[in-house]
Amino acid sequence: MSLRLHEITLTYPDGDGRLTALDSVGLEVERGGLTAVVGPSGSGKSSLLAVAATLITPDSGTVTVDGTETTGLSRGELAELRRHRIGIVFQQPNLLPSLTAVEQLQVMARIDGRSPARARSRAMELLDAVGLAGQAGRRPHQLSGGQRQRVNIARALMNEPTVLLVDEPTSALDHERGAAVLELITRLTHRWATATVLVTHDRSQLTAVDRVVEVRDGRLGEPVAG
Ligand SMILES: Nc1ncnc2c1ncn2[C@@H]1O[C@H](COP(=O)(O)OP(=O)(O)OP(=O)(O)O)[C@@H](O)[C@H]1O
Question: Which residue windows are coiled coil (predicted)?
Fold first, then answer.
């Protein structure tokens, strides 16, 4: 199992007490599988993604990434794990304004110490996969919102992660572009065999995903119709 969350409970300070954001949540995703997590605002979706990304340590429960149990790893070891095994697509693309599309990707590989030639060929392969081979030399302001989101997605795959975590990728896009981005993420999941978890509040576009689970008040279950 490439991503396994087991009995995750997460609380936040809340006045004099604690608010339970995740309550004994379990989730398993295989390589090449895409699980969509839906749920109303405040139900715990972002918290679930942050725990899966090892950015937040839960009160209890375990997160296993690509066979590595993360409990007890140091901050440095977690950072290393994230760099090599986890790709994260945040809601906002956060591209660097002065870099071209291909450079946005190359930066990731440089941090990881790859040769520039290998980094460039991987970057071009990914830009091609997201339909932007012809826009490799453009800077963010020369790209549309949908194109920027595609660069963002390609960048998350740069270091060949096992796990791909995607937060509300369609929130800034209209219905048609949103559907295209979801279709793209599904295709990339199959092609690069990532264990993908995608968080969204918009379930109308979830036609092609392998599985949909719903978070309600911090608990995970099968989605309720509607
Ligand atoms: N850092 C924090 N400190 C305190 N409470 C928090 C914190 N982050 C989230 N919460 C609370 O935990 C609960 C779950 O929040 P979370 O952001 O995970 O939900 P969500 O489903 O992603 O919501 P949204 O769709 O609005 O982003 C909410 O009640 C929220 O107010």
Answer: none
**Cα(44) to centroid(ligand 1), Å:** 6
The predicted pLDDT at position 109 comes to: 78
3-state per-residue secondary structure call for 8-31: EEEEEEECCEEEEEEEEEEEEECC
Architecture of the domain defined by 3-217: 3-Layer(aba) Sandwich (3.40)
pLDDT classification of 65: cutoffs 50, 70, 90: very high
Q: Which atom of ligand 1 is nearest to the CA of 39?
A: 21
Burial readout 27-55 (b: 16 or more C-beta within 10 A, e: otherwise): bebebebbbbbbbeeebbbbbbbbbbbbe
Atom of ligand 1 nearest to the CA of 199: 22
pLDDT at residue 170, as a whole number: 81
Residues within a 6 A CB radius of ligand 1: 12, 19, 21, 39, 41-47, 201
ipTM over 0.90: yes
Buried b / exposed e over 85-96, threshold 16 CB at 10 Å, is: bbbbbebebebe
Q: In this predicted structure, what is the pLDDT of residue 114?
A: 73
Domain ranges of the chain: 3-217
pTM for the whole thing?
0.93
How far is it, in rounded angstroms, from Cα 223 to Cα 226? 9
Which ligand 1 atom minimizes the distance to the CA of 22? 14
Among protein residues, the one with the nearest Cα to ligand 1's atom 4 is 12
- Please give the pLDDT value at position 112: 65
What is the rounded average pLDDT for all residues in the chain? 91
